[in-house]
Amino acid sequence: MPKAEKETLAAQLQPGGGVERWAERHLRFLMLAPTVLILLGLTIFPSFYMFYAAVHKISPNPDLPWEFVGPDNFARLLSDTQFHVALWNTTVFTVVAVTTEFLLGLGLALLLDKFIRRLTFLKTVLMIPMMLPPVAVAITWKIIYEPQFGVLNEIMFRLGLPLQAWAGDVNLAMFSIIVADVWQWTPFIFLLMLAGLASLPVEPYEAAALDGASSWRQFWDLTLPFLKPVIAIALLLRVMDALRLFDLVFILTGGGPADRTKVLSLYIYQVAYRFADPGYAAAISLFVLFVTIVLSTWFMKRMRLAE
Amino acid sequence: MATIRTRSRAREMLLRLSAYLTILVALILTLFPVYWIAANSFKFDIDIFAVPPEWLPRNPTLKHYDEAFIQRPFLRYALNSFLVAVGTTIVSVVFGTMAGYALARFSYPWQWRKQISFWILSTRMMPPIVSIIPLYLFFNYFDMLNTKSALIVAYTAFNLPFATWMMKSYFQDLPVELEEAAIVDGDTRWGAFLHVALPLARPGLAATAIFCLIISWNEFLLSLIITLTEQSQTLPIGIAGRVTQYKTYWGEISAAGFMACVPIVIFAFIVQKHLVRGLSLGAVKG
Predict the structure, then answer these.
(1) What positions does the domain ABC transmembrane type-1 occupy (chain A) (predicted)?
(2) For residue B159, is it within any domain?
(3) Which residue of A152, A215, B243, B252 has the smallest Cβ count within 10 Å?
């Protein structure tokens, strides 16, 4: 600390409102400090602690010391087929669910923009699914998918189609999870795209119309580029959410049948608690964290979200 | 000329018709599952299992509400959820508002403003499963497992970044001149924040608080791991606990699940003007 500054600091800390003046001078740091410290404690510290856990074999018995095993837990990632299955399932879920939600949400927004713009009440009603507790959504779909008395099989029956076990069927389980997720989250994309469309400037479209550009060209050359920032945010948030999928799977399928819906979050949960191997679970968690950081940083840097 | 006009009018009509039809279908698809859980919660078990399904409860009953909220501790779970949500919201909104204001208004050396904003946002992206192992060991060490305070600490980890970004975006929308005028009139910098900026940001503050309440109320994974006792478990965990390997208590979980949705729907209508901003962490202003 420079000498002059030290002196003013000492002067300010004298009784008679000195502390207040000091606080006022450093207000910008003081207002930010609690949040930064809390988040350091709640995110950075756990990350380092997890790294420490990941290089140990941790016994379920808390009295036994941790055994240092070095990179063993990370090496296991390469040979653990269950981990590969979970990674694959998470990838499939993320790609299929987010793509479907995006196309549906964008399509609906383009089709309905003009008609629904002022109907705030109706828009809010359509937004209800994504606000609901995921557990409530999961049990709702569990009732709908129920093979014996569920509504979906009733519809199949009326249509003369074969009845299915849905969430209990090896080939349809992931599909069932995706449908529930699409039901819950398409409104999110829809809402964000509507907001994006509402903020489009009018002039370029008038110019394009004068030039005789088709509506398809207008969409491709004007609408899509203008929407790009909103699309990026919507996709970023959806992808991050899809990577952490847990609640729906936990209630609807429990990861089954035959591990077809076992996603990464669920696998970490099982390794940590059912197989009582927190060291290895920490290694998988670090992998997930790494992927999340790489993906989100790439997205955010590209879109200059932090500015 | 006349035929062209009729044709384009016909096309316009068709577009309008298909739009309204789409809205209708979307409404049915959106509302049916919510309706269905509500309808089932008012049916006797035998009617829940009816084939073909009973579209309207013929014999409405409050039996499952009695089972869940009187005989089983769902009222307790709901209270726990409520207390944890309120605690988390207070912590997140108080500190998040200050940090959001600082990031919206002050300048920092070495591009800190940008770096810190970016870092706070990235903590929000962290999947909760990733932090459960350290958090579990940490709470275990401090004997905080099965407490509501542990849940508040854990939930703050993702509500605080949210509140910071929301409030930052609201403060950025406010004109700085009013605060400058207050300072010229002799107010301190902190005073200008407290007496000028904060009252102006009140709608944003309310919206941020309600979003924090919703996020905490809905949370499942962290509560599943941190709490095992009736005294600390939240509503979603209580509901999941009635879906067992051997039996699913359809009526009970429908009643409790429907009750878990009711406050959320009310909240959704309160914050409807802020939905876009809230759901995009302040990134899209709707």
Answers:
(1) 87-299
(2) yes
(3) A215
Per residue in B38-79, pLDDT (tens digit) is 999 999 888 888 878 888 888 888 988 988 888 889 999 999
Same domain as B100, residue B55: no
User: What element of type H or E holds B222?
Assistant: helix B221-226
The predicted-structure confidence for B149-202, as pLDDT tens digits, reads as follows 999 999 998 899 999 999 998 999 888 888 888 888 888 888 888 888 999 999
In the numeric block, the tokens 């609640």 are attached to A247
Structural domain total, chain B? 2
Of B255, B43, B33, the C-alpha closest to A146 is B33
In a domain, B284, yes or no: no
Domain identity same for B99 and B49 = no
Answer yes or no: do A50 and B161 touch at CB < 8 A: no
Same domain, B114 and B204: yes
Do residue B41 and residue B180 come from a single domain? no
Which chain B positions have a beta carbon within 8 Å of A115's beta carbon?
Answer: 16, 19-20, 23
Q: Which residues of B touch A136 (CB under 8 A)?
A: 37, 236, 239, 257-258, 260-261
- CA B83 to chain A, closest CA, distance in angstroms equals 17
Residue B119 lies in a domain: yes
- Across the interface, whether the CB atoms of B284 and A230 are under 8 A apart is answered yes
ipTM surpasses cut 0.95: no
Is B110 within 8 Å of chain A by CB? Answer: no
Taking only the tens place, the pLDDT of each residue in A208-255 is 888 888 888 888 888 888 888 889 889 988 998 899 899 999 999 988
Task: Say if residue B29 is in the same domain as residue B88.
Answer: no
B80 lies in the same domain as B174? yes
Measure Cα distances from B178 to B92, B190, B196 in Å. 26, 14, 7
CB of B272 within 8 Å of a chain A CB? The answer is: yes
On whether both B25 and B140 belong to a single domain, the answer is no
Are residues B92 and B57 both part of a single domain? no
Token pair for A137: 């959504």
Domains of chain A in start order, with CATH, are 3-54 (no CATH), 81-303 (1.10.3720.10)
CA distance linking residue A7 with residue A96, whole number of Å:
63
| Residue at token pair 């791991």 | B225
CB-based contacts of B174: which residues, under 8 Å, 6+ apart?
A: B197, B200, B201
Looking at residue B120, which CATH number applies to its domain?
Answer: 1.10.3720.10
Least confident of A194-198, B110-114, B218-222: B110-114
Those of residues 64-103 in A touching chain B at CB distance below 8 A are none
Indicate the DSSP class of residue A166.
Answer: G
**Cβ B280 vs Cβ B207: under 8 Å:** no
Which range marks the domain in which residue B7 is found?
2-61
